[in-house]
Design goal:
Elements lengths: L6 E5 L14 E2 L2 E2 H11 L6 E4 L3 H9 L18 H12 L11 E4 L8 H12 L5 E7 L4 E3 L16 E3 L13 E11 L1 H5 L9 E4 L11 H11 L4 E5 L8 H17 L4 E5 L3 H9 L3 E5 L8 H5 L4 E5 L5 H8 L4 E5 L11 E4 L13 E3 L23 E5 L8 H9 L5 E5 L6 H9 L4 E4 L4 H7 L2 E4 L3 H9 L3 E5 L2 H12 L4 E5 L5 H13 L1 H14 L4 H14 L1
Parallel strand pairs: 1-4, 1-5, 6-10, 11-12, 11-14, 12-13, 14-15, 15-16, 16-17, 18-19, 18-21, 19-20, 21-22, 22-23
Antiparallel strand pairs: 2-3, 5-9, 6-9, 7-8
Helix pairs in contact: 11-12, 11-16, 14-17
């Protein structure tokens, strides 16, 4: 084990005066302590969680949930000891088992904070490694704080005349304009042996991570436990999305990815609402085990079923929305997030995410999140090895679920008999007449339906695609890609990516000839250096963290 690997310590007492046996109490079907242990074990880089306690029953409970508890605290550290003393003792107990130096991030997670986020723990470790001697978690407070005037308050905050207060703010203002104060939450503390040896775990000027309200909730009494139990059920989240046919399934897959992460981080159980005339999308959602409410396509108000659910959070992934209907929805939902929306609805949304448009292409306000940094990437496209072979023998051809411009037939004609092997992804809504004729004359092209796209991209040495989400997924896998636009929107987006060197953009596919496309493919296949440059820039452009960035913004909208 490397000395710079984190040492995660959870200090847990067997009992406490505010809520006896609180770490044993059940919360969302598991002991309170288990939530913190599981969060620690979910953090990349943390190999084990060490629980320090004086209570053998609590130590055994920790072991049942995956933690180590190899010793019991001595009596002198069982009740009124300061936390740094408990942590320092635990560090000394493990020194013989692993290296612990001044560079070791000692991650202290208080067990009474069940909803902390893995991302916040990771960020605290990162900031410690960036040069901070200690990092703590804090909650930002923008409120009208007062303090008792000197000499006017007694031991109970009262004097004979009732005492007087003086403000900690300069003037009455909007809460958002108040000076922020930061309250230490106790959820996360990354410290060092150097600080512990000086009799502290925080120091005088620690770094900090601002957490949301849910992440900073501490269980110190029975009311806190009741509140935590209610919060553990998660908010009501609804996805209004249509996909399949001429709209493609990318909308649905994006929402399913977001739903899975919301279920993990907010303990939500999202519901989907879809129009009946998009059966492929409905089937995909049901196949993923999600609840779907199907609405009549002739429904006068397509958002009425969403409003009736009284949601806390709504995602609208239906392209251009009607501003008045979004405004009405916003009156009943706590937060509304529009995905890929360039119409009037964004004016009333809390957030608008247009990942397929770079910021310079979007005219939006402060509620707009634009660009590939917000692209929602499915797990199958993550962490693929970046390999650029000397010769390009395998090509992928893919043009969406319906290929309205007929680019598949054009591409098959272009590559027929060129000496390379190709796989063509055949969408569920293709017009097959021209394509079947082209395939008959191209024995080096194999048509596949509903493949595991991540595996196909890994097989391919290069790709030819249209300008939808697949271009971004190919970028994430580092697959050198030639792009043909199918419509004006794709042209605008892909021209911007071509200028950045993320893809090789060939222009509007509706004006491309088979001979011109064949020449472009031959040139790319023969130029390894160009393929390498495209692959590296593409991987940098779509880094796979878009889902987290979107949900961070959602957390701020809901819980900030």
């Amino acid at each position: 084990m490397d000395p710079t690997d984190p040492l995660c310590i959870v200090p847990a007492r067997g009992t406490s005066p505010g809520l006896p046996k609180k770490h044993f109490k059940q919360l969302a079907g598991k002991p309170v302590l288990a939530h913190t242990v599981e969060t620690g074990l979910s953090c990349p880089g943390i190999e084990e969680v060490l629980v320090t306690t004086e209570d053998e029953a609590l130590a055994e409970l920790a072991r049942e949930h995956g933690a180590r508890a190899p010793f019991l605290r001595p009596e002198r550290l069982a009740t009124d000891a300061l936390l740094y003393e408990v942590v320092a003792h635990a560090v000394e107990q493990v020194r013989g088992e692993r290296p612990v130096t001044a560079a070791t991030p000692i991650v202290v997670l208080q067990p009474n904070v069940p909803f902390r986020r893995v991302a916040d723990v990771e960020l605290a470790i990162e900031r410690f490694r960036g040069g901070h001697e200690a990092v703590i978690s804090v909650a930002e407070e923008r409120r009208f704080f007062w303090r008792a005037q000197e000499g006017t308050s007694g031991t109970n905050g009262d004097t004979e005349d009732g005492g007087r207060l003086e403000p900690r703010f300069d003037e009455r203002a909007l809460r958002a304009d108040l000076e922020p104060f930061y309250r230490e939450t106790g959820s996360i503390n990354v410290t060092s042996t150097a600080l512990l040896e000086r009799g502290t775990r925080v120091g005088e000027t620690p770094g900090y991570v601002v957490t949301d309200r849910l992440s900073s909730l501490a269980i110190d009494g029975v009311v806190d436990l009741w509140l935590a139990e209610r919060l553990s059920q998660g908010p009501r989240v609804v996805f209004r999305v249509d996909g399949g046919g001429n709209r493609g399934l990318g909308h649905v897959s994006r929402c399913l990815t977001l739903a899975a992460e919301l279920e993990r981080t907010l303990r939500a159980a999202p519901t989907f609402v879809c129009r009946a005339d998009y059966p492929a999308g409905i089937a995909a959602i049901r196949d993923a085990g999600r609840e779907v409410q199907v609405v009549d396509p002739d429904e006068r108000d397509p958002l009425a079923p969403v409003t009736a659910m009284d949601p806390a959070l709504v995602f609208l992934d239906v392209l251009d929305t009607d501003p008045e209907r979004v405004r009405q929805l916003h009156r009943t939902a706590a937060a509304v997030v529009n995905l890929e929306d360039l119409a009037g609805g964004p004016e009333s949304a809390d957030l608008v995410v247009n990942a397929l448009y770079e910021p310079e292409l979007v005219e939006g306000g402060d509620n707009h999140l634009a660009g590939a940094e917000y692209f929602v990437l499915r797990e199958e496209f993550r962490d693929r090895p970046l390999e650029v072979p000397e010769t390009a023998e395998h090509g992928l051809l893919t043009f969406g679920g319906s290929d309205p411009a007929g680019l598949s037939a054009l591409a098959v004609e272009a590559v027929a008999g060129d000496g390379r092997e190709y796989r063509l992804v055949r969408g569920p809504d293709f017009d097959d007449s021209d394509l079947d004729a082209a395939l008959a004359g191209a024995p080096n092209v194999t048509a596949v339906t509903d493949p595991e796209m991540g595996a196909v991209m890994e097989w391919a040495d290069f790709a030819v695609c249209s300008g939808g989400r697949t271009a971004y997924e190919l970028a994430a896998t580092g697959t050198p890609t030639l792009v043909l636009a199918q419509n004006d929107r794709e042209h605008e987006r892909m021209a911007a990516l071509g200028e950045r060197g993320v893809v090789s953009y060939l222009g509007d596919g509706r004006g491309m000839s088979a001979g011109g496309l064949r020449t472009a493919i031959d040139d790319l296949a023969a130029d390894r250096e160009r393929r390498r440059e495209l692959a590296e820039r593409a991987r940098e452009f779509v880094d796979g963290a878009g889902t987290r960035r979107i949900l961070d913004a959602v957390h701020e909208a809901l819980l900030g």
